[in-house]
Design brief:
The protein is an alpha/beta fold. The protein has helices at 9-31, 35-46, 48-51, 59-66, 70-81, 112-118, 121-128, 130-136, 141-145, 149-155, 157-181, 199-207, 219-222, 265-278, 300-311, 319-328, and strands at residues 86-88, 94-96, 188-193, 211-217, 237-241, 251-257, 279-289, 331-338, 344-350.
């Protein structure tokens, strides 16, 4: 805080000490922040929100329903109540708040799998070693697990399943919004590059009955796709196995959602170069990722960026970063369309 030159030196020293006390209290409180996601993960693991679906319940009733210890469950619920996930009434019963509803596993846009993915040890343990990223200039994941992120997933089917199911859940709340935010052509082929289980492509095809779609990903990922059996898109989709670092199926609109932030610049140039070569005349690429704002305001992308730093080789990018990346891949950034989600549509065309 500014000093008054006429203020006695002793008073200035007391004011400075008080400022330091407040700073210390603030930083200690912030350092404890990791405990809340741990509590949220615990509640997701044991199904607390599903047990509350029928209405308020006491910790003892919830413990009986979830097979947990009532006293410790209460302690977790008490912390979750401080962030409005649940609320405790005057009778000691807990209820889900509106903000906590998506922790249930049986509702549309359930975030339960996404919470479990984001708090999985594959992200948690490298985050603990973030100083390694600063001193070595590399991801901490290899130092923790002995191999790169996606190599680890290839050897651990259980962890890979948590990741893909969690990513699908995380995307479900975004896909319809993104599909509605962009003016797709009336006809043509949309290719969802590295499209996972196909949630975004499904929403695009539902909204645009004149389009056909191709879901592109690795074989083991495509095995869990969700396009089969949807009458609205029947006969308008196909799958294509492959590695987007090698080649990408041809199309009029190529979707690249939550992909570029996983990889370093050189890898992204290779990926986007393959997309450019796959574009039909007049085609467009939509890079669907967060665009980091250049200010001091909180933004989820700034948090995700450190997760990428700790566990992968990629990063979240600013508009200037995307412009440079696309230019190196022989593309031109034509516009950026923000959505009501954390993601924006970065539209690229042939340079």
């Amino acid at each position: 805080m500014p000093h008054d030159e006429n203020q006695p030196a002793g008073d200035r020293s007391a004011a400075a000490e008080e400022g330091l006390r407040r700073s210390a209290a603030f930083l200690v409180d912030e350092a404890l922040g990791f405990v809340f996601p741990a509590a949220l993960r615990a509640a997701a693991d044991v199904g607390v929100a599903d047990a509350l679906a029928q209405g308020p319940a006491t910790p003892a009733e919830l413990a009986a329903a979830t097979g947990t210890d009532a006293r410790n469950l209460y302690r977790v619920l008490r912390l979750l109540a401080t962030r409005n996930v649940v609320a405790e009434d005057e009778h000691g019963r807990f209820a889900l708040t509106e903000a906590g509803q998506a922790l249930r596993g049986d509702v549309p846009y359930s975030a339960r799998s996404a919470v479990r993915m984001l708090t999985d040890r594959t992200f948690w343990r490298p985050a603990e070693r973030m100083a390694h990223c600063l001193t070595e200039g590399t991801t901490a994941f290899d130092a923790v697990f002995g191999m790169p992120f996606f190599d680890h997933f290839a050897q651990d089917e259980e962890t890979a399943a948590v990741f893909h199911v969690g990513m699908a859940a995380m995307s479900d709340a975004e896909n319809a919004v993104i599909a509605a935010a962009y003016d797709f052509p009336d006809t043509g082929t949309v290719v969802d590059v590295g499209g996972g289980h196909g949630g975004l492509l499904l929403e695009v095809l539902r909204r645009n009955p004149g389009l056909e779609g191709v879901l592109h990903d690795r074989a083991h990922v495509l095995a869990g796709h969700r396009l089969e059996g949807d009458k609205e898109v029947a006969g308008r989709w196909s799958t294509a196995e492959g590695d987007f670092f090698t080649a990408v199926p041809a199309g009029d609109v190529l979707l690249v959602k939550r992909i570029t932030h996983d990889w370093d610049d050189e890898q992204c140039v290779t990926l986007l170069g393959n997309c450019r070569r796959a574009l039909r005349p007049g085609g467009r690429i939509l890079v669907l990722d967060a665009v980091v704002p250049r200010d001091n305001a909180p933004h989820q992308a700034k948090t995700l960026d450190l997760m990428m730093m700790a566990s992968l080789t990629g990063r979240e990018r600013t508009e200037a970063d995307f412009t440079e990346l696309l230019d190196r891949a022989g593309l031109r950034l034509s516009r950026i369309l923000p959505t009501s989600t954390v993601l924006s549509a970065v539209e690229a065309i042939q340079a």
